[in-house]
Amino acid sequence: MFIVNGQMPFYLRSLLLRLFCYLLCAAAVSTAAADRSLLLAVTTSTENSGLLGYLLPDFKKQCDCEVRVLAVGSGKALVLGKNGDVDLLLTHAPDDEERFIAEGFGVDRRAVMYNDFVIVGPPHDPADIGGLNIADALFRLSKKQESSFISRGDESGTHKKERTLWENLAIFPAGDWYVSAGTGMGQVLLIANELRAYTLSDRGTYLAFRDKIDLRIVVENFPLLRNPYSVMRVNPQRHPHTQVELASHFADWLVAPATQQRIGKYRYHGEQLFVPSVNN
Question: What's the CATH fold of domain 116-225?
């Protein structure tokens, strides 16, 4: 019906040409936007704490770009990096990060900040571990087995830290009292609250969830519980498609004095969540 005497009418040819030009322009804009989009894998703690929501608008404004955040455990973040599914990572699993770099999957690892881990549990502290050092607290939990302990069980940085703490005591927890949740920190806190159980949490996520749960810190402030975060770029020699320039700029920005100062000033309900690593 659109063909007359073997030819397409002029108005229809004109319309199709305009549509073709529009699609080309849209594709060009889409490509340009993709070129200014950074894929960042981070731990759930930096997302749950609100820190990224506080910091990222400044970077987006400076770079006129988008930052797409994938909040997962450190173990999953490192897998994303190995597969080239992201441009850079912000994680808190030092041993795995060093291995990631040594095996050639990442480059330019830099310390960004730190907070610490705490043991939280019911306010009445049924296991009576409040005030004990971390080793004695875990030993008592494993010995009595009367109170449940919720493990993240997800190969995250927090889960790996917890396993290291048990292994240092030559304890391999198992049984009904030890629950492997296989989920993120926020959800684990909610589960521990529901079951009136104990768990290991980074301080930042606990503070962010404190108003939603009835758990309190029972063990804290031990050197073994320090929790450092590092930024790394995915190795562009393995994955040339990554946003090398934008990722480098982000890493530089994250450790720059102005951003480090903002990290140190970030508060949640008046409490500092992270300590900047540069010059500390």
Answer: D-Maltodextrin-Binding Protein; domain 2 (3.40.190)
